[in-house]
């Protein structure tokens, strides 16, 4: 059985909302909410953060949660992921980002199951090649071999910063792309933490509606029932690659 682990990237020096994953909702940091959700997959989890002193609190929280930590380059996130995969002996990697405090463990687990079923080193499985899920549910699954190949050959700054463009844009020419869509609606919603308005929505969901206990379908239903909630951050534009 190949060893597949989740690597989540986290740092305190985010530009739009500094220290965002260390902010709190319901007496827990957003990072703790994120790690709690990932624990539901049953997979090993590694927090890939930087060597900056600003990220020491992230290391403390990760260790408290009982998950692995790898520290590497702030801007060359691709090398950080590769180092984490090597350091923890992973054969396959699930990439997520720590600004997704309500990510659904079962959504991620379904992607991993499909990756295992296909048993193809060149396979890249994701649920966001086409946007069908709310933002904040995104994952990518790929082999460590493909990750290390990207580390060796990817040269564009955006490739190094965003980890996977070299794979999902199929620069090597032999990557097999597989998107797993969602048919439950809600692609227009933002359940990700990037701005103050995102924080307001997520905090309201967690503190008033116990969203930390809800799965993706329940969250979509809740947002549809209370349109005043998604209105809090519906004007936010997602940052593009390279921004």
UniProtKB/TrEMBL annotation:
Pfam families on file: CTP_transf_3
Tree of life domain: Bacteria
Name the record gives this protein: Glycosyltransferase family protein
Organism annotation: Kribbella sancticallisti
